[in-house]
Amino acid sequence: HQLTTTKTHLSKYFRMKLSLTATIAIVLSSTCSAFVIQTTQPGAAFNIEKTSQLNMAYDLVAEPEGGEEITAIEAMVGSRMKNMGIAEDSKGENGEDAYTYWLSAEADGSMIKKFRTQVEKDASKNANFPGFRKGQIPPYAQPQMTMFALQEGLIKTCEAAVSAYGLKSLPGSEGSVEVHEDIKDISKGYKVGTSVEFTATFKATIDPEKVVQEEEEEVAPVEEVAAEE
Question: What is the DSSP string of 3-71?
C-alpha cells in the first residue's frame, strides 16, 4: 500500500489569486502522489534550531524519548527509525499488530529539484495570468511551486523508508504520515537542490516478506562457510 494522509488545505499556507489556485490544482492532479503530508501545528512540540550550510534555518522537532531503534533491511543513508510501541487503535489487514514508528530522514536535494522542474513544467502548460504571457509562471507563484516539490520529496522519502526498514503501511487513513516540521517554514529561503532533513511519525506493520528475505540472506553465508569446511 502507498502511504496515505488526510489532505491538508494548502490555503492555510498561502493566500493567492484564484487563477493561481486553479493552475496548482491541475499541477497536483498530474504530478503529485495520492496523498498530501500532514504537518503539526507550529509550537506543538519542543523544537531545536536546525541550520543548513546555506544558512537556511527551520525548526527540527526534537526526537521523542523512549522507543526501540530498529535497523534498516535496505540501506537508506541519513535515516533513523524507532519503534515507539504498539498502536492500540490500529491493526494490519489481517488483524496483525500495528506499531507507531518515528522516522528521521533526509529528502535528497536532486530528487526535490526534479520534482520542482516537473511541477513548473506542468503548471506552465495551463498558466494564463493577467499581465504575463501565456505559459509564464509569475514570481509570486514560485514559492508555492517550491513548496509542492518539497512536499513530494518528503512523501517519496517516507515511502522509501517504509520499504527500507521492512515495514508495510496501513491502508486508508490509518496509514497517514505526520511530518512534524512545517513545510511552509522549510520552504522559506530554501534553495532548490538542497537536501532537507525532517522527522515524521506513522503507523505500520512488519512486512513478513521482508523479514523472510532478510533471514534467508543471513543464512546463506553461513551455509557457504559450512560447505567450504
Answer: ---PPP-GGGT----HHHHHHHHHHHHHHS-S---EEPPTTSS-EEEEE-TT--EEEEEPPPS--EEE-
Torsion of the alpha carbons at 196, 118, 146 and 81, rounded to the nearest 10 = -30
d(CA 37, CA 199): 12
Which residues have CB under 8 Å from 158's CB, separation 6+? 3, 103, 105, 177, 179, 200, 202
Q: Would you state the cell numbers that stand for residue 133, as one nine-digit string?
A: 504571457
In whole angstroms, give the CA distance from residue 105 to residue 161: 8
Instruction: Determine the pLDDT at residue 34.
Output: 37
* Rounded-to-integer distance, Cα 145 and Cα 121, Å: 10
DSSP class per residue in 79-126: -EEEEEEEEEEEE-TTS-EEEEEEEEEEE-HHHHHHHHHHHHHHHHHH
CA distance 91 to 113: 37
Q: Residue 32's pLDDT band (boundaries 50, 70, 90)?
A: very low
Q: Please determine, for residue 75, whether its predicted confidence score (pLDDT) is greater than 80.
A: yes
Contacts (Cβ under 8 Å, ≥6 apart) of 130: 19
Q: Is the pLDDT of residue 131 over 90?
A: no
> pLDDT tens-digit profile of 211-225?
766 656 655 554 555
Looking at the DSSP bridge assignments, the partners of residue 199 are 104
DSSP state letters, 126-146: H---TTS-TTPPPGGGHHHHH
What pLDDT, in 10s, does the model give residues 162-179?
A: 999 999 999 988 888 999
